[in-house]
Amino acid sequence: MTAEVRVKICGLTRPQDVDAVVTAGAAYGGLVFFAKSPRAVTIPQARALALAFPVGLARVGLLVDPSDEFLEAVLAEVPLDILQLHGKESPERVAELRTRHGLPVMKAVGVATAEDLPALAEYGRVADMLLVDAKAPKDAVLPGGNGLAFDWRLIAGRRWPVPWMLAGGLTPENVRDAIALTGARQVDVSSGVESAPGVKDADAIARFTRAATL
Q: Is 10 known to be catalytic?
């Protein structure tokens, strides 16, 4: 692996989580605005965390089918650099939000089988970045962060119109293999660096980032 791989640690909830991400050398930190997630933060919590991000650490806001009113309320208080849309937003909705708010948009697309791959090309025409994630089970409460991986061979050697990030079931133990198999230059982790749901582990963050960027 090379140091060109960029790491995103998602689901930060405490000031010490931001410190751990900075110390590890990650490129992105994610804040979750989805009430059903154990990693959810309120707008005031998110503002305090985002203001603690140093220059160079991108602030990513994860939203799931946000209403215009909710997104405007978030952006009025929280200085975000990237919007991560993790719901069932249509390509038209992605393009609309990108234009309206003037922020780069990362669109998460769940993958389970080859039938899910065309959506990546479709969203790649309107988003600034793709998050290639494991498709959530039909009965799942969360659209992501379930700790599930997909068959990485499905995307081995594939390219899309915009940069992309690999997510889904990554851990300090398997991220190096995932990068080698898929060619990913960016990786995203949430539950894989936690000691309990929603509780980040600084040592695991350090080990994950180190493994990804070796």
A: yes
CA separation for the pair 84, 79 (Å, rounded): 14
Give the E-state strand segments of the chain in sequence order: 6-9, 28-33, 58-63, 82-85, 105-111, 129-134, 164-166, 186-189, 194-196, 199-200
Helices (H), 109-201: 118-124, 175-182
Position 16 scores a pLDDT of 97
Q: Which residue has the tokens 């692996």?
A: 1
Residue with tokens 């198999």: 181
Q: Please give the pLDDT value at position 148.
A: 72
| Residue 188 appears among annotated catalytic residues | no
Cα(73)–Cα(101) distance, integer angstroms: 12
Q: Which of 19, 65, 81, 133 is catalytic?
A: 133
Residue 145: pLDDT over 70: no
